[in-house]
């Protein structure tokens, strides 16, 4: 039975008037709980706030003893109030003292009250506090009264989030909403970044919570839902949408939720209780998020992201709010926080002010991670639920090497990282002082250090590191960040600019390496069970000769007569390499017939990353001018371990005996045929792994710019020949059981080598 006076809409109007009055914060809160008690015909109304230490503190009451305010506390999970906070679910009882969770606090005088209704106060699915009404007489609080309390709690949640609330907090304490949090994620890049949060998709700020006309609000909701459904349908019907893409599956899920009657009914009920359309969306999503966050089923938790995104879409339609922060308008020391983002979106931001990126999703091999590494931006992924727990402007620290993110760090943690940054700056200055020194070991072995690149923006770092050139220029990044297939002229401009910046230093351009985990939406392809070993790289290029010819033509034109190096990715057998060379010869002849300048020297190499090619090296190398090893894929295929799956990829040491023997096959074959060989996979940029590669005779290493300094410092302090002898003995037939990593660790200690 409904026993409220005038219903929740009357109470909401009273609350709005109270919020506008010139009252002190405690007086305003006291008046609010009084209004709730009167409207609910309750003897008691109490408001508890969750503190950062996990205690629920009584912040205001009407009916309990006044001296208990800011004195009475319950632990999270303790008592009825603690139970509601822990489970984020309402609780209605007609005999509260008999409930097994009931906790008696004598200072409150609540022992005489029997009936109890408590609801969580939620914001972005987080419990901020608990709102309670009680009565001495036994009565049952029904669904309508529970709904009225939840609606009121929505207003209180916004009040807690304002700075006006701060003066109610005891010195040395804070509310849970603003407590420091630490997230363990996956490292994308090295480095440390301190800055302030900028949400990539800013949450819509709801300012109008109370409905003046519920019928008008329901009409606004219906119109917004219809508009959103039309936009989702239009995206699904778009001609470029692949029938089996992940993007399409997400949109199909959106469409299912957008047409779910249960969801729409809950939104309508919230409006009937006096909330505006946008406040109703926020209220329903708060409840949904709180419930789904407590589920252990990963499928349900994944759907939470879909519902969050859908709710944000609906809020933007209702408020007409586009992106409130321009992509290039960033504060100093900005750190982007997002659920996920593509490489093109990252490149839209002002890189002079951008210090780091934190994602809830993604892996170290994601496209955005590759771009972040190229730009030298500190990045961490898989920081679960960070988007809902932070606000634009929050202090944040990213620890790249550890894959940790500190949100709202304590002063001592912040000082620790400030000291680390100072030490890091001194190390960078030390490495910069080495840039002009030849990269030669103490026993006279020269090691060529090169950059991995893919963006014109990171090529100026060649001057900063002193690298000998670019050992791998990933041309696919231009295709991945574009919304359509780059035209010939656009490709020519990019490659020409890259060569212009590099000057006399060589640049090895790898032909288009897409497919697998590198999805380009405008190039249609059928769904594959195992895309990493599917229709990708040179297989795709040879099957689509127009695509391959255009890129080779662009490279030839961009050279303007200068020397040109081209690398063919994912060669599986020599025949494919010969086919690519044939395309190159035809394009050269075409240029000559047209009277255009041909590069003075053209070298074409093969990338060794498919294990079958290890058994064709003596057929391949006479055809190639050079070879490069792609350790990422080679190790993945050798171990049958998906490099994007941390559960298996970490189980296999890439420099253990079987993998190092395979790499040595390439080094030895290249030496027999007197052809240069370069390691351009991730192994080259890690000191211990780089030492292993040099120990088997590899003298050309290509890596991310940030790795050049540490690797060069190690080389300058290294006596390589005795280590080569020790490793050769360990790799010999019958030497199984030796750990290469342990062996190298002993030599590192013996020679006191700096390891970055």
TrEMBL record:
It is found in: Cytoplasm. Residues 24-170 form the GAF domain. InterPro entries: GAF, GAF-like_dom_sf, PEP-util_enz_mobile_dom, PEP-utilizing_PTS_enzyme, PEP_util_C, Phosphohistidine_dom_sf, PTS_EI-like, PTS_EIN. It catalyses: L-histidyl-[protein] + phosphoenolpyruvate = N(pros)-phospho-L-histidyl-[protein] + pyruvate. Its EC number is 2.7.3.9. It comes from the Bacteria. Its cofactor is Mg(2+). The keyword Cytoplasm applies. GO terms for molecular function: phosphoenolpyruvate-protein phosphotransferase activity. Its main location: cytoplasm. Keywords: Cytoplasm, Kinase, Magnesium, Metal-binding, Phosphotransferase system, Sugar transport, Transferase, Transport. Pfam families: GAF (PF01590), PEP-utilisers_N (PF05524), PEP-utilizers (PF00391), PEP-utilizers_C (PF02896). Belongs to the PEP-utilizing enzyme family. This is phosphoenolpyruvate--protein phosphotransferase.
């Amino acid at each position: 039975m409904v026993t409220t006076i005038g219903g929740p809409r009357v109470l909401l109007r009273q609350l709005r008037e109270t919020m506008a009055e010139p009252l002190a914060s405690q007086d305003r809160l006291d008046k609010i709980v009084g209004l709730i008690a009167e409207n609910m015909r309750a003897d008691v109304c109490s408001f508890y706030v969750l503190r950062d230490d996990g205690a629920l503190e009584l912040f205001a009451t009407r009916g309990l003893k006044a001296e208990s305010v800011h004195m009475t506390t319950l632990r999270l999970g303790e008592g009825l109030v603690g139970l509601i906070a822990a489970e984020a679910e309402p609780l209605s009882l007609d005999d509260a003292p008999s409930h097994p969770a009931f906790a008696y606090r004598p200072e409150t005088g609540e022992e005489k009250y029997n009936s109890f209704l408590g609801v969580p106060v939620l914001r972005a699915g987080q419990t901020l506090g608990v709102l309670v009404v009680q009565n001495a007489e036994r009565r049952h609080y029904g669904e309508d009264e529970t709904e009225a309390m939840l609606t009121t709690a929505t207003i209180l949640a916004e009040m807690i989030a304002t700075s006006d609330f701060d003066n109610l907090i005891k010195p040395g304490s804070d509310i849970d909403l603003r407590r420091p949090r630490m997230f363990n994620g996956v490292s994308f890049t090295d480095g440390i970044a301190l800055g302030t949060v900028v949400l990539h998709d800013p949450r819509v700020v709801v300012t109008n919570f109370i409905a003046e006309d519920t019928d008008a609000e329901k009409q606004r909701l219906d119109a917004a839902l219809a508009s959103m459904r039309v936009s989702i349908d239009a995206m699904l019907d778009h001609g470029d949408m692949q029938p089996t893409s992940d993007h399409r599956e997400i949109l199909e899920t959106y469409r299912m939720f957008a047409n779910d009657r249960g969801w729409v009914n809950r939104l309508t009920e919230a409006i009937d209780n006096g909330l505006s359309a946008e406040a109703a969306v926020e209220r329903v999503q708060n409840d949904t998020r709180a419930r789904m966050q407590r589920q252990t089923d990963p499928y349900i938790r994944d759907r939470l992201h879909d519902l969050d995104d859908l709710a944000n879409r609906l809020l933007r339609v209702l408020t007409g709010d586009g992106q409130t922060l321009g992509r290039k308008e960033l504060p100093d020391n900005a750190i982007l926080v997002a659920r996920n983002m593509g490489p093109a979106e990252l490149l839209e931001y002002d890189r002079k002010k951008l210090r780091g990126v934190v994602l809830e999703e993604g892996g170290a091999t994601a496209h955005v991670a590759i771009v972040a590494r190229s730009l030298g931006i500190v990045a961490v992924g898989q920081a679960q639920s960070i988007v809902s727990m932070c606000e634009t402007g929050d202090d944040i620290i990213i620890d790249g090497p550890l894959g940790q993110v500190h949100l709202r760090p304590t002063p001592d943690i912040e000082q620790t990282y400030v000291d680390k940054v100072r030490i890091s700056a001194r190390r960078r200055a030390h490495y910069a002082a080495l840039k002009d020194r030849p990269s030669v070991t103490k026993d006279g072995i020269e090691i060529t250090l090169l950059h991995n690149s893919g963006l014109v923006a990171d090529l100026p770092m060649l001057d900063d590191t002193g690298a000998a050139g670019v050992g791998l220029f990933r041309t696919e990044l231009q295709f991945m960040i574009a919304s359509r297939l780059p035209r010939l002229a656009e490709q020519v401009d990019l490659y020409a600019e890259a060569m212009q910046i590099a000057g006399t230093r060589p640049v090895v351009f790898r032909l288009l390496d897409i497919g697998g985990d590198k999805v380009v939406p405008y190039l249609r392809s059928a769904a594959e069970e195992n895309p990493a070993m599917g229709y990708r790289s040179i297989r795709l290029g040879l099957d689509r000769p127009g695509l391959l010819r255009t890129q080779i033509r662009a490279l030839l034109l961009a050279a303007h007569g200068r020397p040109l190096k081209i690398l063919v990715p994912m060669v599986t057998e020599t025949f494919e390499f010969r086919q690519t060379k044939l395309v190159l010869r035809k394009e050269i002849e075409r240029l000559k017939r047209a009277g255009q300048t041909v590069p003075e020297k053209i070298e074409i190499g093969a990338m060794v990353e498919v294990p079958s090619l290890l058994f064709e090296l003596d057929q391949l190398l006479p055809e190639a001018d050079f070879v490069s090893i792609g350790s990422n894929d080679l190790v993945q295929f050798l171990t049958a371990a998906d490099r994007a799956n941390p559960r298996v990829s970490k189980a296999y040491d890439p420099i253990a005996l079987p993998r190092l023997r395979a790499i040595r096959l390439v080094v030895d074959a290249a030496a027999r045929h007197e052809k240069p060989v370069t390691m351009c996979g991730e192994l080259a940029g890690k000191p211990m792994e780089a030492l292993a590669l040099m120990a088997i005779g590899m003298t050309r290493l290509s890596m991310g710019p940030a790795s050049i300094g540490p690797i060069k410092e190690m080389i300058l302090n290294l006596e390589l020949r005795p280590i080569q002898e020790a490793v050769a003995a360990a790799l010999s037939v019958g030497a199984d059981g030796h750990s290469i990593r342990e062996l190298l660790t002993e030599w590192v200690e013996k020679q006191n080598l700096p390891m970055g």
